[in-house]
Specification:
The structure holds two protein chains of two kinds. Chain A has a domain of about 100 residues. Chain A is built from five helices and no strands. The longest helix of chain A has 27 residues. Chain B is an alpha+beta fold. Chain B is about 65% helix and about 10% strand. Chain B is built from twelve helices and eight strands. A four-stranded antiparallel sheet of chain B has the order 1-2-3-8. In chain B, strands 4-5 form a two-stranded antiparallel ribbon. In chain B, a hairpin with a 3-residue loop joins strand 1 and strand 2. The model of chain B has no long low-confidence stretch (mean pLDDT about 85). Classes of the chains: A mainly alpha, B alpha+beta. At the A-B interface, helix 4 of A face helix 4 of B.
C-alpha cells in the first residue's frame, strides 16, 4: 500500500476520507467547545498554536479530502465549490468560523436578550436590543 | 479657451434676450436676499464680520489632535474640528477601500461560501441607513465592551475597554531625520524602478526590482536609527486605581469610542458601494481577455493582477471617487453620537455661542467644498494616470 500524504489519490480514498473528516471534526469540536463551553481542548500547546488549532486542523483535513474525480458526487461538489485549493480551504474555514463565533452573539443581542414588551424606556431591562419603540411607533 | 465663442454676436439678438433676462433675474434674486438679510440683521442689531474668530472660545472639546482648551480662540476650535473631520474621513476611506476591494473580489470568487458571505454583507450593510448603523456600533457593539479593570488585553500593550481603545504612544527623538530618511528611500525606489524599466526595455534584462525596493524601504529608515540618532520609545498604557471602585488607564493614546464607531460605520457602509464598483469593473472586462490570458499560461492571480485589474481600474475609479466624497460628507453624522467634528464643534457649539449664523455656516460650507474639491481633483489626476495613453 502506497500512502502519499502530500498527494491524496483515489486508490486509498477511504483512508484519506477517514483522516480528513476526522481532522476536520476535531477542528470543529475545538472551536465549538471554545465558543460555547469556554473549554479549550488544545490548551496544552503554546498559545499561538492553540489559538490557530481549528484552522490548522481544518486545512489539513480539507487537504486530505481534496481528491479529484473521486467518483463520489457529494465529495466532488464540496471540492469544487469550497475546497479547490489550500487558499480556498482557508477562506471557507474562516467564513465558517466567523459565523460560528459572531452569529450567536448577534442573535442573542437581537432576539434572546432583547425586549419586546412594554411601552417606555424603563421596560428595556435586558442587555440586548430595545425593540419596544418599534411597537409603539406601529 | 476659444475667445471667439465668448464674444457676443450682436446679429443674433434672439439668443441674447433670454440670456440677459436670466442674468437679470439671478442678480435681482441674490440682491433681494442680501438686502433682506442686511435689513433683518440691522433691525436686530447684529453686525456682520469674521472678527469673532480671534475671540476666546471658552468651551472644551472632548477629543483633539492639537493642544486645545477653553482659553484658545474660535479659529483654533475650527481647526480642531477640521482636523477631527479629516482624521475620521481618512481612516474611513482607507478601511473602506481595503474592505471594498476584498469583498468585491470575494463576490466573484469560485468559493461558494465566500461569494455568498460577501453578497450577504453587501446587501445587509447597503440597505440599512447609515445613521442606524452608527447607532448600532455606538450603542450596541461598543457599549458591550468590558470596564477598564476587565479590559480586553492585546499582549499587555493595548487595551480595549468601554471607555475607548488604549494604544501605546510613540515618543520620537529626531523625528524629522526619520521623515527625511523615508523621503530618501521613496526617491531611491523611484530611481531604481526607472533604471529597471530602462534595462528591461533596452537590454531585455529582468532586475528583481520588487525585492530591491522592499530592501531599500526598510534599509534606509533603519540606517537613520543607527546613524541619524533617531530613537523610538513607547509609552504603554497602565491601569491605575482612582478610588475603591473606579479604575482607569493612564499614559498611551486613547482612541475614543465615538471615533471608533464612526470610522467603523462609515467604512462598513461605504465599503459595500466600493465592493459593487469593483465587481462591476472586473465584470466589465471581456471574458475573452481572461481566456486569452489563461491560454498563454498565466495563473489566476497573474490574470487578475496583470490583465484584469489595470483595465478594471479605469471603470472603478470614477464611481469610487463619488463614494469617497460621500464618506467625507457623511462624516458630519458625527453630531448624532457627539464626536467633535467640524459640524458639531463649529456649526454647533460655536454657532450657538456667537449667534453668527451666516459667517459660520459659510465657513463650514466652504471648508466642505474645499475638502471635496481636493479629493476629486486628486482622484481625477489618478484616473488620468491609469487611463489609456493614446498616441
Amino acid at each position: 500500500m502506497n500512502l502519499n500524504i502530500l498527494k491524496p489519490n483515489k486508490e486509498n480514498i477511504s483512508i484519506y476520507l477517514v483522516m480528513g473528516v476526522g481532522l476536520l471534526s476535531v477542528g470543529f469540536i475545538d472551536i465549538l467547545s471554545n465558543t460555547f463551553f469556554n473549554f479549550n481542548i488544545t490548551r496544552i500547546f503554546p498559545e499561538i498554536i492553540s489559538y490557530l488549532s481549528p484552522l490548522l486542523l481544518g486545512v489539513f483535513g480539507l487537504h486530505f479530502i481534496r481528491i479529484e474525480y473521486s467518483g463520489n458526487k457529494t465529495l466532488d461538489i464540496i471540492n469544487k465549490n469550497l475546497n479547490s485549493s489550500n487558499f480556498n480551504a482557508i477562506l471557507s474555514l474562516i467564513v465558517v468560523f466567523i459565523l460560528i463565533k459572531y452569529l450567536p452573539l448577534l442573535l442573542k443581542w437581537a432576539f434572546f436578550d432583547a425586549n419586546f414588551l412594554g411601552n417606555t424606556k424603563e421596560d428595556c431591562t435586558g442587555d440586548g436590543a430595545c425593540w419596544v419603540f418599534v411597537k409603539v411607533w406601529l | 479657451m476659444n475667445l471667439k465663442n465668448l464674444s457676443i454676436n450682436l446679429k443674433n439678438k434672439k439668443k441674447l434676450i433670454p440670456q440677459v433676462l436670466t442674468l437679470l433675474f439671478i442678480v435681482l434674486g441674490i440682491s433681494y436676499f442680501a438686502f433682506n438679510a442686511q435689513t433683518n440683521m440691522g433691525n436686530r442689531g447684529i453686525s456682520f464680520g469674521y472678527g469673532f474668530l480671534g475671540q476666546e472660545a471658552s468651551f472644551d472639546i472632548g477629543f483633539s489632535l492639537i493642544d486645545y482648551d477653553g482659553s484658545h480662540t474660535y479659529a483654533r476650535a475650527f481647526l480642531v474640528g477640521l482636523l477631527n473631520t479629516l482624521l475620521v474621513s481618512s481612516i474611513g476611506i482607507l478601511i473602506a477601500t481595503l474592505i471594498g476591494v476584498t469583498v468585491g473580489i470575494g463576490r466573484l470568487s469560485s468559493n461558494y461560501l465566500v461569494a455568498k458571505f460577501s453578497e450577504v454583507y453587501v446587501e445587509v450593510f447597503r440597505n440599512i441607513p447609515l445613521l442606524l448603523q452608527l447607532f448600532f456600533w455606538y450603542f450596541a457593539a461598543l457599549r458591550a465592551l468590558p470596564l477598564p479593570e476587565q479590559a480586553i488585553n492585546f499582549y499587555d500593550i493595548s487595551y480595549l475597554t468601554v471607555k475607548g481603545w488604549y494604544v501605546p504612544k510613540f515618543l520620537w527623538t529626531n523625528f524629522s531625520v526619520f521623515i527625511y530618511s523615508i523621503l530618501a528611500s521613496i526617491i531611491a525606489i523611484i530611481f531604481v524602478s526607472k533604471y529597471a524599466k530602462k534595462q528591461r526595455e533596452e537590454f531585455g534584462k529582468q532586475l528583481p526590482s520588487f525585492y530591491i525596493a522592499t530592501g531599500l524601504f526598510f534599509l534606509i529608515p533603519s540606517l537613520s536609527f543607527l546613524i541619524g540618532g533617531v530613537k523610538l520609545n513607547f509609552e504603554i498604557p497602565v491601569l491605575k486605581q482612582m478610588s475603591t471602585t473606579i479604575f482607569n488607564f493612564h499614559g498611551g493614546v486613547s482612541i475614543i469610542p465615538e471615533l471608533l464607531s464612526l470610522a467603523m460605520a462609515l467604512s462598513m457602509y461605504t465599503a459595500t458601494f466600493i465592493a459593487e464598483n469593483v465587481r462591476a469593473g472586473i465584470l466589465g472586462i471581456g471574458k475573452g481577455q481572461k481566456e486569452a490570458a489563461a491560454s498563454i499560461g498565466l495563473t489566476k492571480t497573474q490574470i487578475l493582477k496583470l490583465v484584469v485589474l489595470p483595465q478594471a481600474l479605469r471603470i472603478i475609479i470614477p464611481p469610487t471617487t463619488n463614494q469617497y466624497l460621500n464618506l467625507t460628507k457623511n462624516s458630519s453624522l458625527a453630531a448624532a453620537i457627539a464626536y467633535p467634528d467640524l459640524v458639531l464643534v463649529f456649526a454647533g457649539t460655536a454657532l450657538m455661542q456667537t449667534g453668527r449664523a451666516i459667517e459660520i455656516v459659510s465657513i463650514t460650507m466652504g471648508t466642505y467644498l474645499l475638502i471635496s474639491l481636493s479629493i476629486s481633483s486628486f482622484m481625477n489626476w489618478y484616473n488620468k494616470s491609469v487611463a489609456i495613453k493614446e498616441k
